[in-house]
């Protein structure tokens, strides 16, 4: 049963309510290991579903274009103050609708069309909005990309420096969507200063780890920081831009009126709640557990013959090349989903297969830690993954169903925020 309960939705639209209940049950019954997903608290769920969704609030606190902002202004200010305190930054904008618009705001704040931007190549672990060719950021700007070493799977900063010196980008993005190792923000900052570029740290995946002290912070190195508010931060689907005071006005103008109208006030409220939760001592324990789980799972997978990019992980994320297992990432991901293990197929560095049918899978441990799983369960998770991949190669659906049942039995002992049996 979904929590908070949805009796009015059930009465008004039973078909949709049934789908919501089904999704809650699905989230409860599966090992949710998509690296960009998590569970929010019931407090965040409640805040996100309030009457705040009724209110339109173009502008910023104290400078709105609509009346009736007495409470919305306080809510947004509260979220801003909590973001500034949690991350130790001068300025925070909590209005971006999601991570991609937050990154677009960086372009609008610091670049003109045709200017050069430098980011990590998408197949190497970067994000679409770091200048990849199919994104508007790659079409409207001169994009140059860096990658990782074929031998180590790690960023070669000598190559990054040489590329930056040659191309002279105005903005350099650090971060991405499939980076299993610690991001050296100090090294990026040194290169950015040398070439006169703005350093933008995209910490969408690791924001919760940064807030919880489980990953080094970009604060003090990056001029501007973008992040989603879900993933490891365990907030609603939104985003923030953090910056030095020097860039505050440019960032705010880029978000509004540059890219969007009124903020989603119910999401802002959910962000405020999540930021308060992330400031508690228990969140530091959670962040440490996320990393401990990932390291334990990586070790167990390696012992079972999985080829992990860079040989392991420093954070919540694991990227595996399944070539040696005799199966592509897409059929493996679909088989694992049937087996109760939810992750995504993913391109790996230097992949010889197409992006929609790549060689790899990407997985993370943020949601597992939220449910209360620890290192003790990671060898069993690895065993299930290995069995499921083997079953997929053999087209053994019975084995997949067997694993799914065992996963449900395990998870029955670990409560899920947003669901009650």
Structure description:
Pathway: Amino-acid biosynthesis; glycine biosynthesis; glycine from L-serine: step 1/1; One-carbon metabolism; tetrahydrofolate interconversion. Its main location: cytoplasm. Keywords: Amino-acid biosynthesis, Cytoplasm, Methyltransferase, One-carbon metabolism, Pyridoxal phosphate, Transferase. Its EC number is 2.1.2.1. It is an enzyme of class 2 (transferase). This protein starts with 6 loop residues before the first helix and ends in a 10-residue tail after the last helix. The protein has two domains: 48-278, 3-Layer(aba) Sandwich (Aspartate Aminotransferase, domain 2); 289-411, Aspartate Aminotransferase, domain 1 (Alpha-Beta Complex), CATH 3.90.1150. It has a seven-stranded mixed β-sheet, sandwiched between helices. Strands 11-12-15-14 form a four-stranded antiparallel β-sheet. Strand 11 and strand 12 form a beta hairpin. Helices cover 45% and strands 13% of the residues. The mean pLDDT is 98. It is built from 16 helices and 15 strands. By secondary structure, it is of the alpha/beta class. It has helices at residues 7-12, 14-29, 42-48, 70-87, 99-110, 136-140, 157-167, 185-195, 207-211, 248-259, 265-278, 281-303, 329-338, 366-371, 378-394, 397-411, and strands at 31-32, 59-60, 63-64, 91-93, 116-120, 142-146, 171-174, 198-202, 224-228, 239-243, 307-308, 317-321, 341-342, 344-346, 360-364.
